Amino acid sequence: MREECTDEELMLAYGRGDAHAFDALYTRHRGTLYRFLLRHCRGERASADELFQETWSRVIVARERYRPEAKFTTWLLQIAHNLAIDLMRRHRPQAGSEETELVLRQLDAPETERPDRVLSEFEQRRRLQRALEDLPDEQRTAFVLRMENGLGLEEIAEVTGAGQETVKSRLRYAFAKIRARFAE
Fold first, then answer.
1. pLDDT classification of 151: cutoffs 50, 70, 90
2. DSSP letters along the chain, please?
3. pLDDT tens digits, one per residue of 90-128
4. How many CB atoms lie within 10 A of CB 104?
5. How far apart are alpha carbons 108 and 23 in whole angstroms?
6. How many independent structural domains does the chain possess?
7. Which pLDDT score is estimated for 21?
């Protein structure tokens, strides 16, 4: 039955005391949330881990006050984004590492692939990771929310607290910079 429920229904059930509903939400969104935070923290796993735990803690605390005014994923990523911004204000994150690229590759890669294809995809991911690291924080966040989390302009605007036109502009600049980086 849990698989049939929407995220919003699960969160409302959790707010009424159904702990199994939280388990279902956590299982559905842990990978997406962690990848988002890892990208946001430029591969610094300790910061991503800290933000991951704090995001879920905030979900737990807010369970009784939750109102499905937006999609659950938008709400969840908005919490994560705000926490990441707070962390960045306290101290600048370090650049991404080779270890991060390997972790991201392992999260997404199918079990059986040809070695030459894995190497090619690894190089493409490495180039993308470097291009993302070079983007200003606002552009990188918009790009990741769009491409990795599949959010639309309105949802990205909601998560980041920016206007839709600002989000469009950030995405346009991010795509242009990444295309230029791959053209090199």
1. confident
2. -GGGS-HHHHHHHHHTT-HHHHHHHHHHHHHHHHHHHHHHTTT-HHHHHHHHHHHHHHHHHTTTT---SS-HHHHHHHHHHHHHHHHHHHSPPPPP-HHHHHHHHHHH--S---HHHHHHHHHHHHHHHHHHHHS-HHHHHHHHHHHTT---HHHHHHHHT--HHHHHHHHHHHHHHHHHHHH-
3. 765 344 445 445 544 544 445 444 455 544 666 777 777
4. 19
5. 22
6. 1
7. 94
pLDDT average, residue stretch 145-151: 85
Domain range spanning residue 58? 2-183
The domain that holds 75 is classified in CATH as 1.10.1740.10
Predicted TM-score of the model (pTM): 0.64
Angle CA(59)–CA(60)–CA(66) in degrees, nearest 5? 60
Are the C-beta atoms of residues 40 and 94 closer than 8 Å to each other?
no
Long-range pairs, 4-13, Cβ under 8 A, ≥24: 6/72, 7/71, 7/72, 7/73, 8/68, 8/71, 8/72, 10/72, 11/59, 11/63, 11/66, 11/68, 11/72, 12/66, 12/68
State the amino acid at position 71 in one-letter form: K
The tokens of 50 are what?
């800290």
